[in-house]
User: Which sequence fits this backbone?
């Protein structure tokens, strides 16, 4: 899965564009870096003085990781590993976004992006960078974990170094690219 993450998400931004109930268009911008991958697996590094999330990821990519260097963090790790392939394709699968409502789950995340088919990406807002980063994945129906769901109408992708988004990875049939490009909130984000 590390190679797929490297190919599809590493050093990329995703822009999840959604429509709120009052027809207002809004968005959540995310950033995916190499060291975020460990959070998504649910694995735990055994000796953190010799290995950190960046070196763990590098060793996975090169095929030089030793099984004694990591372990399952808890009983949710197996579920995370099962849905990780879907999460790596989140730009094509996500159809809903909402604020996490702390519904009995001990989780430090702000926004959930996902599906009703048990694949959710948790995002934490980083104030310093003014962007969301992935910090967990869940095998659950998003309807159960958000206070207000919003339908995703488009997803865009770019490399971190690019200034604006130009690639649509998903767009709803009823949504016009021109309307998005002319939107007050989005016109500074997309070409």
Assistant:
């Amino acid at each position: 899965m590390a190679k797929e993450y490297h190919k599809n998400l590493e050093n990329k931004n995703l822009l999840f564009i959604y429509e709120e109930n009052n027809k207002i268009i809004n968005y959540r911008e995310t950033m995916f870096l190499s060291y975020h991958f460990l959070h998504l697996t649910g694995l735990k590094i055994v000796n953190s003085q010799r290995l950190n999330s960046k070196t763990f990821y590098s060793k996975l990519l090169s095929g030089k990781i030793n099984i004694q260097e990591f372990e399952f963090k808890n009983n949710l790790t197996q579920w995370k590993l099962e849905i990780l392939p879907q999460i790596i394709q989140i730009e094509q699968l996500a159809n809903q976004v909402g604020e996490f409502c702390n519904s009995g789950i001990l989780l430090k995340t702000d926004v959930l992006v996902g599906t009703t088919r048990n694949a959710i990406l948790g995002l934490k807002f980083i104030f310093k960078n003014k962007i969301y980063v992935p910090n967990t994945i869940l095998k659950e129906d998003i309807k159960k974990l958000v206070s207000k769901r919003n339908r995703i109408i488009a997803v865009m992708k770019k490399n971190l170094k690019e200034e604006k988004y130009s690639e649509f990875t998903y767009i709803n049939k009823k949504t016009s690219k021109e309307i998005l490009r002319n939107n007050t909130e989005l016109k500074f984000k997309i070409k």
Remarks:
- Helices lie at 2-8, 37-41, 53-62, 77-88, 90-93, 177-181.
